[in-house]
Amino acid sequence: MKILVAVKRVVDANVKVQSRSDGTGVDTVNLKMSMNPFDEIAVEEAVRLKESGIATEVVAVSAGVVQAQETLRTALAIGADRAILIESNEVLEPLAVAKLLKALVEKEQPHLVILGKQAIDDDSNQTGQMLAALANLPQATFASKLVIAGGKATVAREVDGGAETLSLMLPAVVTTDLRLNEPRYVTLPSIMKAKKKQLDTMKPADLGVDVSPRLKTLKVVPPVRRAQGMKVPDVKTLVEKLTIEAKVL
Ligand code: AMP
């Protein structure tokens, strides 16, 4: 069983981002970049399936600038067998990524595609769903448990009202939620080993996909700063302030 895992290079989750002064986007110059946290969970799950003898090959794929090779090397260090970079300097919208992944699914014929539920830079939460629709594959999003057996994936997923369990025929698309697993710590020997693993590069045109943006960002501005809070000595003062000053009671 072959698993394809999609990994995105994003601004590290611990970095506080700022918008560019001209409002054209987020300033990413000299910022620490990392693998999208939900994608780390996706790679970890695929590698665990390989370690348990269920999967035979894990292929990591990233679409983006040449530096996304570093993200792919991290996936290889976690335990992916080989990696593919679809190199592009365009701003890649979820639809473009989904089209690229669909073309790769046709080429690689994986039994399972695992993606993160969302990328923490654009928070779109769209690519997995779009891929499933374009490739006509069953999908289970926000997976908190994944069991593969008898050509099926059983997926527990977190929904508004609680938990839901879906059974999907393979091949299928699964997107990861935070509780699916805790990714391993990547050791130095595995980073060294990852340097020797196969990493192929292709261009969107090689997959016959036009990735030109369909959306135009008009303006990016930081959120309005919240007014400073205050401490009150007792409940009486609190009620007074809410009634007389704020007029909310
Ligand atoms: P999004 O729909 O942008 O929130 O992204 C959801 C998931 O799609 C991510 O967690 C990744 O698994 C995958 N994905 C999005 N963009 C890319 C990309 N440029 N390269 C590889 N995978 C991506």
TrEMBL record:
Pfam families in the cross-refs: ETF
Superkingdom of this protein's organism: Bacteria
Record GO terms (molecular function): electron transfer activity
Keywords, comma-separated and alphabetical: Electron transport, Transport
InterPro entries from the UniProt entry: ET-Flavoprotein_bsu_CS, ETF_a/b_N, ETF_b, ETF_beta_N, Rossmann-like_a/b/a_fold
GO biological process, one term: carboxylic acid catabolic process
CDD domains: ETF_beta (cd01714)
Family listed: Belongs to the ETF beta-subunit/FixA family.
Subunit field text: Heterodimer of an alpha and a beta subunit.
This protein's name: Electron transfer flavoprotein subunit beta
Organism listed in the record: Paraburkholderia xenovorans (strain LB400)
